[in-house]
Amino acid sequence: MTFKAPDSLAEQIAHHLAERIIRGEMKPGERIQEQKVTLALNVSRGSVREALLILERRHLIAILPRRGAHVTELTAHKVQSLCTLMSEMYILLANAVASGWKVQADLAPFVQIQQRLTASFERQDIHTFVDDSFNVMRATYGFANNPYLQETVENLQPAMSRAYFLALEQRKASMSEYLELFERLLAAVIARDFAQIRVVLTAYAQRSCDLVISALTVA
Predict the structure, then answer these.
(1) CATH 1.10.10.10: which residues of the chain?
(2) Residue 46: which of 34, 32, 55 has the closest Cα?
(3) Phi, psi of 52 (to 5 degrees)
(4) For strand 31-32 and strand 61-64, is the pairing parallel, antiparallel, or unpaired?
(5) 9-71: what fold?
(6) Cα 62 to Cα 55: distance, rounded to the nearest angstrom
(7) Which string of DSSP letters, residue by residue, matches the chain?
(8) Cis peptide, bond prior to residue 6, ω within 30 of zero
(9) Does residue 218 register a pLDDT over 80?
(10) What is the pLDDT of residue 7?
(11) 76-218 — its CATH code?
């Protein structure tokens, strides 16, 4: 495999390994050996070490003394904790948009994402649907103008993607429900209804959490 700019080599290696973890190709508890990754990807061991530190920061692996790097376990408690935290950060981001938008053109990115979500639903393309659900979040960053919040959300996003991937089939059944929630969220943002923003996003986070925990139970 050959890696190229613009991302750093370590970031590209981290992304490659993260995709394998998110899709379940690397199992919880599985050890990640630096030398094997170095040989498999034809990269330096230093870049692999840096990539593993990135993955640890993103909660996909744990690096333990004398045990090395292992894929983290996904438990109901971790899922609930993650959903609770992400819910509050989503609310902060949505509130920033509600406070900051001035003209209809400011909301165009969200309308475009809504159209893509609808198209993905009609095709039953759950992978693109989930990707665009995260793009909603990224479209808010310019309004929030908070690099610490953005960094925290981005570091947690892979863990959320991993949880969502586990529940893909359950989420497919709830795609129409999510579209309805997003429509309500967009209406609340336009109306600058902060109480309704919290209601919608809290419900979304809990619904997502329930789907993942249900999938975790039968996995």
Answers:
(1) 9-71
(2) 34
(3) -65, -35
(4) unpaired
(5) Arc Repressor Mutant, subunit A (1.10.10)
(6) 8
(7) ----SSS-HHHHHHHHHHHHHHTTSS-TT-EE-HHHHHHHHT--HHHHHHHHHHHHHTTSEEEETTTEEEEPP--HHHHHHHHHHHHHHHHHHHHHHHHH--SGGGGHHHHHHHHHHHHHHHHT-HHHHHHHHHHHHHTTHHHH--HHHHHHHHHHHHHHHHHHHHTHHHHHHTHHHHHHHHHHHHHHHHTT-HHHHHHHHHHHHHHHHHHHHHHHHH-
(8) yes
(9) no
(10) 63
(11) 1.20.120.530
pLDDT at 65: 86
Whether the CB-CB separation of 26 and 17 falls below 8 Å is answered with: yes
Give 164's pLDDT tier (boundaries 50, 70, 90). Answer: confident
Q: Where in the chain is the domain with CATH 1.20.120.530?
A: 76-218
**Tens digit of pLDDT for each residue in 133-142?**
889 999 999 9
Tens of pLDDT, residues 83-94: 999 999 999 999
143's tokens: 């309004």
CA angle centred on 5, ends 4 and 9, rounded to 5°: 70
